[in-house]
Design brief:
Elements: E1 13-15, H1 16-23, H2 27-35, E2 43-44, E3 51-54, H3 58-69, H4 74-82, H5 86-120, E4 127-129, E5 132-137, E6 140-146, E7 152-153, H6 160-179, E8 191-194, H7 196-200, E9 205-206, E10 208-212, E11 224-227, E12 230-239, H8 248-262, E13 266-267, E14 271-277, E15 288-299
Antiparallel strand pairs: 1-3, 2-3, 4-5, 5-12, 6-10, 6-11, 7-9, 8-10, 8-14, 12-15, 13-15, 14-15
Keywords: DNA-binding, Repressor, Transcription, Transcription regulation
GO molecular function, one term: DNA-binding transcription factor activity
Protein name: DNA-binding transcriptional MerR regulator
Length: 302
């Protein structure tokens, strides 16, 4: 930054660059403020094209920048600068608080989903046997929706009917999340669920779906499922269906159940299938995933 005396031009004016420097802004930001009618130069030199500001405009520029940092739009800032009644200003600030809280919730869930994606890659601490991993997981809480009337039967091969049923199930979950007032980003990782009773019979009927939600954003207790800390067995795949159209999920569940049986583990919770759909699952191979994960909570024998 230049020395203070160098900011003063003739008639007490400072250039756009000097104004930007002293206010911690960019020249582009000042041009935008000008275009939106929030802060106009005091003088425009037609010969050079230079625009000049006055030192007395610095507090206004600073206030605009501070309001932007609080999340106000330039349109809202314009209203505040023009002057509002106390009640109107309080309403505007209260609305902004609600928006900030919603964004905070979205970012918190996004962080959790990003961490879960990294965990899906596995680590050297995992015990890997025949493609199945055994890992300790902390307590987790999920929002659950019953798929009444649209239960999805996992098939060993891709069918358009099954794909559309799953899309409908996802739509129900998104609607439920919206009704609960939770951030839409939680729907990025919708998990299919198969009950322990159905797993015991190798009946792969999905009657519920769920999404993980941070504790501070949980809705009413009746909408949630808590899975206590403990071991899970899991496997992963890169695609929902392999190149021959066979279901990777069904094969993965079968592998998990065989592993559980061979090691005499007890199933202590519902199966969950977690993945990110990248392409439409009504295609010939049923869509691709960054990573598809199948897991079943288990209790080890004494």
């Amino acid at each position: 930054m230049e020395k203070l005396e160098s900011y003063l031009e003739k008639d007490g004016r400072i250039t756009t660059g000097q104004m930007a420097d002293i206010c911690g802004l960019t020249k582009r930001a000042l041009r935008l403020y000008h275009e939106k009618g929030l802060l106009s130069p005091v003088f425009h030199d037609e010969d050079t094209g230079y625009r000049y500001y006055s030192l007395c405009q610095i507090p206004r520029a600073d206030r605009i920048a501070r309001l932007q940092n609080l999340g106000f739009t330039l349109s809202e800032i314009g209203e505040l600068l023009l002057g509002m009644s106390l009640n109107s200003e309080r309403e505007l600030y209260a609305r902004k608080v609600s928006e900030v809280r919603a964004e905070k919730a979205r970012l918190s869930v996004a962080e959790q989903l990003l961490r879960e994606h990294l965990e899906m890659e596995g680590s050297s601490e995992d015990l890997v046997v025949s493609g199945v991993s055994l890992k300790w997981k902390p307590e987790r809480t999920f929002v659950v929706v019953n798929l009444e009337g649209c239960e999805v039967q996992l098939a060993s091969e891709h069918t358009e009917e099954g794909a559309l049923a799953w899309y409908y199930a996802m739509a129900l979950m998104r609607e439920h999340i919206q009704q609960l007032g939770l951030p839409a980003v939680v729907c990025n990782h919708i998990s299919t669920m198969i009950s322990p009773e159905n797993l015991a019979q190798r009946n792969f009927s999905v009657d519920r779906a769920c999404v993980a939600v941070p504790q501070q954003y949980l809705p009413l207790e009746e909408d949630t499922l808590v899975i206590p800390e403990g071991f899970v067995v899991y496997a992963t795949a890169l695609t929902f269906f392999d190149n021959s159209g066979k279901s990777s999920e069904v094969a993965g569940i079968e592998e998990l159940l065989d592993y559980i049986s061979a090691h005499k583990f007890a199933i202590r919770g519902s199966y969950m299938g977690i993945g990110d759909v990248d392409e439409e699952i009504t295609g010939s191979l049923g869509g691709t995933f960054d990573r598809l994960r199948f897991e079943i909570p288990v209790a080890l024998p004494n």
